[in-house]
Amino acid sequence: MSEHHHFIIYKPYGFLSQFITNQIKGGKHKLLGELYDFPEKTMAVGRLDVKSEGLLLLTTDGKVSDHITTRGKVEKEYYVQLDGAITSEAIEQLQNGVEIGFDGKKYITKPCKVKLIDTPDLPERSKKIRDARHGPTPWISVTLTEGKFRQVRKMTSAVGFPTLRLVRVRVGDILLGNMQVGEVREVEELI
């Protein structure tokens, strides 16, 4: 039986959460393999879209990946910078579930935890974000157990406060902590 490898990384803005791309046209995307020499059969556990950044788990063990992504019990926490001063009503809507589009159908998100937070101490993003001179850009924490395609971005847009920056800071008990953008750490286990 071969020993599996597990990694936690700080996925930079502009990277795809994968190692190969099927996309031929539309420009070259940066892939995870550019960050580190990962062993063969390493896979991302869940994804972060190209514009999102933060904690991404990688493993060579499909059972670990399946446990984290499909059981629907592992919490994922995101720090989200918004365009506009979010209202308590909008926060309550996000907590209770909002309607988003998913796979061409309407979908109501599951209830989740949402709260206003102070500006987090995060590394500066490689691509500049508009600043507060153009209006308020508060941060919220969103913790959920599901993860549909671009879900958090769709949720904040659904309540009228589009996402400017999205950083995943926690998956289960694993924290982004003080990792730097692009940093890769091999760990003993993920769950």
UniProtKB/TrEMBL annotation:
Record-linked SUPFAM superfamilies: Pseudouridine synthase
Domain Pseudouridine synthase RsuA/RluA-like: 5-158
Gene3D superfamilies documented for this protein: Alpha-L RNA-binding motif, Pseudouridine synthase I, catalytic domain, N-terminal subdomain
EC number(s) stated in the UniProt entry for this protein: 5.4.99.-
PROSITE patterns, A to Z: PSI_RSU (PS01149)
Molecular function GO terms recorded: catalytic activity, acting on RNA; pseudouridine synthase activity; RNA binding
Keyword terms, alphabetized: Isomerase
GO biological process: pseudouridine synthesis; rRNA processing
Family: Belongs to the pseudouridine synthase RsuA family.
Protein name: Pseudouridine synthase
UniProt organism field: Tenacibaculum caenipelagi
